[in-house]
């Protein structure tokens, strides 16, 4: 039976009661959380910086999956990333649309040097073909099933094609690469992405604030394939 990684998205949490919600996730055996960083430039929203993340990791033991939806304004990418690296995330993701070729390779090297999993994200209107040259150096690909910027959006079915295509390439080339999906996840879409070949599922409003969160987590984890 396949074990899926579930990473609840902090974007959908109640920040008035964040400690309680994260503690509940920990008690329910959740190991990862997804942390969205938006800059009101690459996407039309502004979210969290390293300070909130530092407070989280200082008080609760969870693996951190950082998803950067930003345009780097620093002369050196490492200058932007370092405050987040100091929080010791397990994985960091940047959008390949936001970086040029040299920056992508620099990002991957920074991750490797700091023992962090390196991940690239692709939007629903992009194809795996556009990032195929980087797959051999990545640890993960984040397939967006919504356009980044806001939680609670409707699932974009193009993501299933990208997941299936990635899975085929991984199997053919025997790559050590995981597939993550983010956006519009519920009980129905979770089944679709699992059948397509995903390994890691990000879920926000489907989990946070729900009275039956334990049952919902079990639905996401369940392997019916």
Automatic annotation (TrEMBL):
Cofactor dependence: Zn(2+); Fe(2+); Mn(2+); Co(2+)
Extent of the signal sequence: none
Entry's EC annotation: 5.1.3.1
Keyword Iron among UniProt keywords: yes
Recorded family membership: Belongs to the ribulose-phosphate 3-epimerase family.
Reactions accelerated catalytically: D-ribulose 5-phosphate = D-xylulose 5-phosphate
Source species, domain of life: Bacteria
Alphabetized InterPro entries for the sequence: Aldolase_TIM, Ribul_P_3_epim, Ribul_P_3_epim-like, RibuloseP-bd_barrel
Keyword list, A-Z: Carbohydrate metabolism, Iron, Isomerase, Manganese, Metal-binding, Zinc
Enzyme class: isomerase
Organism lineage string: Bacteria, Bacillati, Mycoplasmatota, Mollicutes, Entomoplasmatales
GO biological process, one term: pentose-phosphate shunt
The keyword Transcription regulation appears for this protein: no
Record's protein name: Ribulose-phosphate 3-epimerase
A Pfam family per the record: Ribul_P_3_epim
Example GO molecular function: metal ion binding
Assembly mode: Homodimer.
